[in-house]
Amino acid sequence: MNILIDPITTETMNELEKTQKEFWNIPRKTGILINMFIKMMNIQSVLEIGTSNGYSGLWITKALKETGGKLTTIEFYEKRQSIAIENFKKCGVIDIVTPIQGSACDVIKGFDDSVKFDMVFIDASKREYVDYFNLVKPHLTEKALIVADNIISHAEKVQTFIDAVDADDEFQYEIVEVPGGILVAYRNAIN
């Protein structure tokens, strides 16, 4: 079933899937899951760490258009961010996107205490996943969701992140065996 109703977005997504290896895009199955999570949980604010060319951001924003939410997305490489912004414009979602260019750790450290997210999607430097987790925790809402990509394909590089989530009593998590693998952690704060 094609959940992306408008033809421009469908065409753009199909084109971006051809560049998956070049831009390290998530697989379609992961995009569909993220899109569903946002709609099922009525998520309003998403932080994406690793914009790339905007492919995952399109899955996110198409769901956020339905929930009335907004996406903040961080990309280290200026060229990739420029491509993503063009894709967001082409697909009519730029109005709900705040693109930020720079180091994700530095950007998150600069967030005001009042900045909160219902969901964080992590798909950037694998060795920094644990840093992203620790930095973003104060910016999560009470029932927040974290989705991290490449958990199986880059297991060794992300092990410290998995260990940190596992040791944190505020989260329950599962590793989902889609291509590359994702970790889905729910902040349930049941203590």
Describe the 3D structure.
With 191 residues, the chain is α/β, with parallel strands linked by helices. Helix 3 runs parallel beside helix 4. It is built from eight helices and seven strands; from the N terminus they run H-H-H-E-H-E-H-E-H-E-H-E-H-E-E. The protein has a seven-stranded mixed β-sheet with strand order 3-2-1-4-5-7-6, sandwiched between helices. The protein is 42% helix and 23% strand. Strand 2, helix 5 and strand 3 form a beta-alpha-beta unit. The longest helix has 13 residues. The chain has a single domain, classed as Rossmann fold (3-Layer(aba) Sandwich).
Keywords:
191 residues; Rossmann fold; 7 strands
The domain count comes to 1
Low-confidence stretches: none
The tally of strands reads: 7
CATH architecture: 3-Layer(aba) Sandwich
Looking at CATH, the homologous superfamily is Vaccinia Virus protein VP39
Cα end-to-end separation:
40 Å
Estimate the global geometry from the Cα principal axes.
globular
Per the CATH scheme, the topology name is Rossmann fold
**How large is the count of helical segments?**
8
The sequence of SSEs as H and E is: HHHEHEHEHEHEHEE
- Percent in helix: 40-55%
Oligomeric grouping of the chains:
single chain
| The CATH top-level class label | Alpha Beta
